[in-house]
Structure formats: structure tokens, C-alpha cells
């Protein structure tokens, strides 16, 4: 029974450490935005409407949900058609995964990015190298484990994803804006 208790204590400690690590990542991301001169999603004028935010390429909470749904739709498509070979855009899958990870303030290892791309590791690694060369993502060594490397969207990659979702989701935000007006007008 002592072993089971020790395992439970270790899991609780690990969970607390993960929480602390996530908080540190969030703080680091905020510092990165501040250092690059960009404003984070939370620093927008109060009077700016949702449609104006969409038009200006600013962040919007619905975009992470759209990214997550897009990623899940791509996985569902392969399951329904029972073929991984019919549909594939590993670079886009990696970008979606990293965008969601950035919004959730979590780190993604190269290994996880490869798995998330739903292609063989060699293919995923080739796409990671291409995305890095294009300046859309960055690699970061894990200071506590030299064998592990993390990937994340670069400032340019994150901005491009914001721009993509701002242009592709204007109608969703417009509908949301109108529904709020209807509720407040009632």
C-alpha cells in the first residue's frame, strides 16, 4: 500500500509542477509579446467591436475553437473515409496544433508535433524544417532535457494564423455581434 500512496503523491506533485510550468509559459509568452512590441489578445481598446477586431487581425476567443474544430474535422475526415492517404496537409496540421497550443499556453515537443501531423515522422520533420525556414515556427531546446526540443509558432506564424482566422471567421463574429445586440435590445 505504501507504493500506491507514493505513486499518488508523485502524481499530485507532477500535476502541481505541470500547473506551475504552464503559468511560467504564459508569463514567458506575455513577455515575448511585450518584447516584440505586439499587443496580446487582452490588450485591445474596450470600445472596439468584435467585427472591428476581426477586420484588424486582432485576437478573438472563438478562433482557438475554430482552429481546434478544424483540426478535429481533419482527423474525422480520415476516419470516416478510412484512409490517411486521401487527405493530408501536414504543414497545416502542425500550424493548427501549434496555434491551439499557443492559445492554451502549452508547449509542444517535436515528437508531439510529428504525431499531431498524422504523417510519418520523417515527413513531419521535413515539414517542420520547411516551416522553420519560412519563419513560421521556432525550435527551442528543453533546458532540463537535452534530448527534447520544443516547437512553437514564431511571432510571424502566430500573426499569420490570427490573420487567417480573422479573414475566414468574419461571418461567425458578425453573427455573434448581432446575437449580442439582439439580446441586449430585448
Would you give an account of this structure?
Residues 38-56 have low confidence and may be disordered. Strands 1-3-2 form a 3-stranded antiparallel sheet. 68% of the residues lie in helices and 6% in strands. It has 186 residues and is mostly helical. The protein starts with a helix and ends with a helix. It comes from Novosphingobium album.
What key attributes describe this structure?
mainly alpha; 8 helices; 186 residues; 3 strands; 2 domains; 68% helix; 3-stranded antiparallel β-sheet; globular; Arc Repressor Mutant, subunit A
Q: What oligomeric state best describes the polypeptide chains here?
A: single chain
Overall 3D form: globular
Strand content: 5-15%
Unreliable spans: 38-56
First and last CA, distance: 61 Å
- CATH fold node name of the largest domain: Arc Repressor Mutant, subunit A
**Sheet with the most strands, sense and barrel status:** 3 strands, antiparallel
Q: Which CATH class of the largest domain applies here?
A: Mainly Alpha
| Secondary structure: number of strands | 3
- Helix and strand content put the structural class at mainly alpha
Helical segment count: 8
Mean pLDDT: 75
Amino acid at each position: 500500500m505504501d507504493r500506491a500512496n507514493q505513486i499518488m503523491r508523485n502524481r499530485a506533485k507532477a500535476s502541481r509542477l505541470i500547473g506551475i510550468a504552464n503559468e511560467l509559459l504564459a508569463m514567458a509568452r506575455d513577455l515575448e509579446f511585450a518584447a516584440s512590441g505586439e499587443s496580446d489578445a487582452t490588450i485591445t481598446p474596450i470600445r472596439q467591436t468584435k467585427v472591428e477586431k476581426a477586420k484588424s487581425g486582432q485576437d478573438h476567443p472563438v478562433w482557438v475553437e475554430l482552429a481546434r474544430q478544424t483540426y478535429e474535422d481533419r482527423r474525422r475526415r480520415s476516419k470516416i473515409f478510412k484512409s490517411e492517404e486521401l487527405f493530408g496537409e501536414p504543414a497545416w496540421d502542425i500550424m493548427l496544433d501549434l496555434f491551439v497550443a499557443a492559445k492554451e499556453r502549452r508547449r509542444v515537443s517535436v515528437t508531439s508535433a510529428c504525431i499531431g501531423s498524422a504523417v510519418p515522422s520523417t515527413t513531419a520533420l521535413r515539414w517542420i524544417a520547411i516551416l522553420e525556414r519560412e519563419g513560421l515556427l521556432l525550435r527551442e531546446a528543453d533546458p532540463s532535457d537535452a534530448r527534447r526540443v520544443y516547437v512553437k509558432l514564431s511571432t510571424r506564424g502566430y500573426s499569420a494564423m490570427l490573420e487567417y482566422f480573422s479573414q475566414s471567421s468574419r461571418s461567425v463574429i458578425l453573427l455573434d455581434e448581432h446575437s449580442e445586440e439582439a439580446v441586449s435590445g430585448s
